[in-house]
Amino acid sequence: MLIDEAWSPSTYAVPVIGPDDRLFGTCNGLLGLYTKTSTIKIANFTTGEYMHLKKPAKNMRGDHFSFYSFGFHPVTKEYKITHFLGDCIEGRPSNKHKFSFIQVYTLGDKKWKGIPTPEPLSLNSVRNSGVVNVDGTTYWLTEDKTASWQHTLASFDLREENFAMIQLPVEREDDDYFGPRMFWIRDIGGKLCIVTAQTSRYDARILVGELQIWTLDNPVEQRWSQKHNIKNPPNYIPGPHFVHMDRILAQSFFSVDSCELISENIEVSCSKVATLFDFSPRKLYNMQSYICVKSLVCLDVYKKGGIVCRPKQEVGWKLKK
């Protein structure tokens, strides 16, 4: 489903996305698509071009589209795909909850390479909280029982291909009446953000209290600031992108809505809710949202990594001069 800049469902068709493809990233108008076959797909839905790339291994048990990420480094101008794979022995998962290395593919290369992590990291957090690429760095959350909010922000520099750990902002006291806290990692206006709220003690699918949004202002100094504090949050915040201009994308049990943000400093309330489309009978927490732009990136430049396919007729997004 495409939503245009006016927050209305778009009539554009996207033929490069198959019915079983799952989107795992967007970069400068290119789409990263997970398939159930032995390949993943990079596509430009403006031009209709796409190419298939071999996955890092065949028949990976427990593999999932959320374990892939698609990023771009503004200095090297390289596109890179990262893959989080649970610890395995002879191709079989030995610990499906942890990973000890990531696999990296540079668009245009012929093969993937494995890079070990400093220590085993939480694969569950990758799947539950998401992965974000901002300014040439891939970010995700990992469990850390000794840290603030019992999580730490992990990062992977796409240029240097090294890891770093960043402490989260100082936690605030939770309300004992509510249930456990949920965390998501999101991108708002090109800034990395942590989104968190407590859940209902009776139904962990329902967010209650206030939805806190924290922005990472300086990764080196590990400096955070609170961007928003949204009262009466929706049931689910899709990602990695959910804010555009003065509205947010939100999901309820039966529909996907846009909500206008009425702010006073960091305190925000949602008003003027507009239903974009009916989401039933799909499950809550089963939706992604990405901001994508029109692109003239030619995939022929990267054809050493796979065969580039072109549409037989003009089926992509119409381009303006």
List keywords for this structure.
5-stranded antiparallel sheet, 23 strands, 1 helix, mainly beta
Describe the protein's architecture and organization.
The chain has 321 residues and is mainly β. Helix content is 2%, strand content 47%. The chain contains one helix and 23 strands. The chain has one helix at 123-129; strands at residues 22-27, 30-34, 39-44, 49-54, 68-72, 79-84, 87-89, 92-95, 98-106, 113-122, 131-134, 137-143, 151-157, 163-167, 181-188, 191-199, 207-218, 223-231, 243-244, 247-251, 255-264, 267-278, 308-309. The chain has an eight-stranded mixed beta sheet with strand order 15-16-17-18-22-21-20-19, with no helix packed on it. A five-stranded antiparallel beta sheet has the order 1-2-3-4-23, with no helix packed on it. A hairpin with a 4-residue loop joins strand 2 (30-34) and strand 3 (39-44).
The shape, in one word, is globular
The tally of helices reads: 1
Unreliable spans: none
Strand content: over 45%
Radius of gyration using CA atoms only: 20 Å
Mean pLDDT across every amino acid position: 84
Please give the share of residues in helix.
under 10%
Report the structural category: mainly beta
Distance between the termini: 25 Å
| SSE order, one letter for each helix or strand | EEEEEEEEEEHEEEEEEEEEEEEE
Tally of extended strands? 23
Q: Which strand order does the major sheet show?
A: 15-16-17-18-22-21-20-19
The protein's oligomeric status is single chain
Q: Largest sheet, described in full?
A: 8 strands, mixed
